[in-house]
Prior knowledge:
Layout: H1 4-23, E1 32-35, H2 41-45, E2 56-57, E3 65-68, E4 71-74, E5 99-102, E6 106-110, E7 115-120, E8 124-130, H3 131-138, H4 143-146, E9 149-155, E10 159-165, E11 170-175, H5 191-206, H6 214-221, H7 233-240, H8 247-268
Antiparallel strand pairs: 1-2, 1-9, 3-4, 5-6, 6-7, 7-11, 8-10, 9-10
Keywords: Signal
Amino acid sequence: MPEYRECLAHFLFLLWFLQYCQQKNLDLHVLGLWADKTMGKAAKRRKIPASQDMVFQLNNTSRDKRGNKGNQGFLWPPMWQRTLKNQDSPSINQLEWKGVKTTMRAVILDFGLLHFQLAYLTHTSIQCFHMRTWETVVKPSPCSNRGYRIALAFEFHDYVVAFLSIDNLVQPLWVESASELPPPPTDVYDFPVFLSEVAGWIREWLMSNRSSYACEVIRKDGKKVFGGVGVYTVCELFFDAEVFDCPSQTARLCEAFWTFAHRSHTHLA
């Protein structure tokens, strides 16, 4: 699961870059979509020719997908793919970057005619390459030399906005209207609603088997409530919650430990 602070940082960076481009009156029509190929375990073990390890440009016949097994999305807008029934598909140049939003698991780009959501299934970084750097450094470099994969890149006139990943594990989603996007998890900043959902989750959770570590429960069983709490954030939250700085919480922990030991002595004696 992506981290709260990671998603927020990506959003703020993209928002800053979008505002910078708008202030400079740069052309933000999409000129092309680019991506690196994915490789299976067998392919990783053998040497790949450099010519097959370069970033490639997608087109309206591309069927490349990314995401978890059984739940993958197209990199090229599926509604704009060229098919036997749709020979005259719209040009990608009709898309113009107009806005950016975030959830605690994904970023959403507004392209006017379409909306694009990219969920960070694992750690993903965003890089804005100047066109000169893109043409002279990134495109000629095999992926194995770069040390990262381009999950998807949007080419504009002056810059290329690229989502970079080690394993290409991202979840793309194209929709024609923002209302078609799946509902995001509640942001903790909407605190009253967040607390209400936590309380509801606890009521359900109390009725289930409770044999997992608290940090695992929050990250996995409670992921619909604790959006953005990943393996790193959960450690910081436990530290910030000051469990051992709160006398009552520490007392309850010690009493639970004593009760556990007492029960062991009593039952095993």
